[in-house]
Amino acid sequence: MADKLRKNFEEPSISVSELSKTLYDTNLRLYEAIQERNEMFANISHDLRAPITAIHNCIEYLASLDHIDESDIKEVLPMLESRSAMLERMIEDVFLLTKIDFARNIFNFEEVPADAFFEDIFYIYKADEQYSSRDLSLSIAPDCSVSINVDLMYMKRAIDNIFKNALKFTEAGNYIKMSVQRSAEQTLEIIISNDGQKISEKNLPHIFDRTFTASDSRTPSSDNGMGLGLSICRGIIERHGGSIYAVSGNEVERGCEFHILLPVI
Known about the structure:
The protein has 7 helices and 7 strands, in the order αααβαββαββααββ. By secondary structure, it is of the alpha+beta class. The strands form 2 sheets. The chain has a 5-stranded mixed β-sheet with strand order 2-4-5-7-6, with helices on one face. Strands 1-3 form a two-stranded antiparallel ribbon. The termini are far apart.
């Protein structure tokens, strides 16, 4: 009986001070996550007003007319189409970011050959008219005939966000390069680089933050929206067991580079 009671009062494996520090660190991370999410939703509320206001103004303009003819509709239709598309993109990005954060089974991983996978992605952009004025090139190292475990749809979405970002900040005649190489025995490195505008040194560490818009980092534009593309990209890649970082400013001669590291099978 005494031995049984002693077992109930054995010295704990963790001290009170260690437990207190663990709880403090956990609460701090939770607080920071809540603050980041609150700030993100505040930014979302602000950015959603622009396309909604534009759509509302178009409706008010048409409602103010005594007679609406075809020319009146043609005048406001481009604005309605562009702002509706912007609104749709914003809502889709928020929904996708939430799914990445909280949904357990949104990814359908499958084993694919890395070289063929990235070749297929690259030639989609090569055939895309939007990129026809850019100098696109692809290089894949000979030792990249390895397999990777990916969700085809979501990984293509991540790469697409980086290419669209490059397209936005490069001009006609600039290059967008994609290279695939081995960086370690069990790691594949994908580098997407361009010689467009650089990202400032002070902004570089924040470009993947959800509360940081793409227009903050280089050239402002009312069409940049909430800038969740790179945050979505990071979320997808991290759910694949990989990582992503950017290099720009004084670290590269021109433009910027995005480095994606993925585990190989």
